[in-house]
Design brief:
Blueprint: H1 3-10, H2 17-21, E1 24-27, E2 33-38, H3 51-70, E3 74-85, E4 93-103, E5 107-115, E6 121-133
Antiparallel strand pairs: 1-2, 2-4, 3-6, 4-5, 5-6
Length: 134
């Protein structure tokens, strides 16, 4: 089974916020989880990518990675997320990559970097998840 097939089986997107926002998971492991999100449909009234949309992408990527780290029969539950928005984006697609800062038995923390189509940093987020039994 490919990483994409495993991700869609373990993390079904149908009916979720990820589906509604157009988020696609392109790579998934505890060490690196990546995905994309269109700017269109995820903007604020001034026509810029909504900061909350960036946080949804970041938390989604980090949570998937943390759940993969937690292992079978366990889930990751976000307990803290913070984000710094560096640059406005008006169109196109943003990409994100979650990499671990700390992988423990009960807590996992990730840094998630979002970039625009020109690979300029748009947002840096940090997510901490508690790892719990399913």
């Amino acid at each position: 089974m490919s990483d994409t097939e495993e991700t869609s089986t373990r993390f079904p997107l149908a009916g979720t916020l990820l589906e509604r926002m157009g988020i696609e998971i392109t790579e998934a492991s505890a060490q690196r989880t990546a995905g994309t999100m269109p700017v269109a449909g995820n903007i604020q009234p001034a026509g810029l990518l909504h900061g909350g949309a960036s946080v949804v992408l970041a938390e989604s990527l980090g949570s998937i990675a943390a759940t993969l780290h937690a292992g079978p029969g366990r889930h990751a539950v976000g307990i803290e997320v913070g984000a710094t928005h560096h640059r406005a984006v008006r169109d196109g697609v943003v990409s994100g990559v979650a990499t671990p800062l700390h992988l423990g038995r009960s807590v996992a923390s990730y840094e998630i970097v979002l970039t625009d189509e020109r690979e300029r940093r748009v947002c840096t987020a940090r997510l901490t998840c508690m790892l719990v039994d399913a």
